[in-house]
Amino acid sequence: MAKALARVQGRAAVPLRTLAVRKSGGIALVPLETVAYIQGAGDYAELVLRDGRTELSEKSLERLEALLPPDFVRIHRSYLISWRDVACLWSLEGSRTAVELKDGTRLPVGRSRVKALKALLDAGE
């Protein structure tokens, strides 16, 4: 056990490039660059792909948030996005905010996450 732990701790952190999803007949690897955004689906997460397809991950949004590279950020209790895909931020009625992705998709931004998202977008420009 100690040897295994030492091996894992000694490994260089390798950036995650794919997510594994169960399919009938096995496991499929979904490249992160094909993921438009990730939406919570109860205890699972739905990967919405750029081509319009969806894949169901057995991991929760919380677990994925911990695993994904830092360019994936939580914008709402139900959504994870790559901040690099943001086209603009919209201020809506009633102090609500939405994010528009480069593909035209609009997603809500939680009130507690607006300030951090704006700072991240300003720093990334």
TrEMBL record:
GO molecular function terms listed in the Swiss-Prot or TrEMBL record: DNA binding
Pfam families the record matches: LytTR (PF04397)
Keywords associated with the record: DNA-binding
Keyword DNA-binding: yes
InterPro entries linked: LytR-like, LytTR_DNA-bd_dom
Top-level taxon in the UniProt lineage: Bacteria
SMART domains, per the entry: LytTR
Domain (HTH LytTR-type) ranges: 19-123
DNA-binding among keywords: yes
Name by which UniProt lists this protein: LytTR family DNA-binding domain-containing protein
Lineage: Bacteria, Pseudomonadati, Myxococcota, Myxococcia, Myxococcales
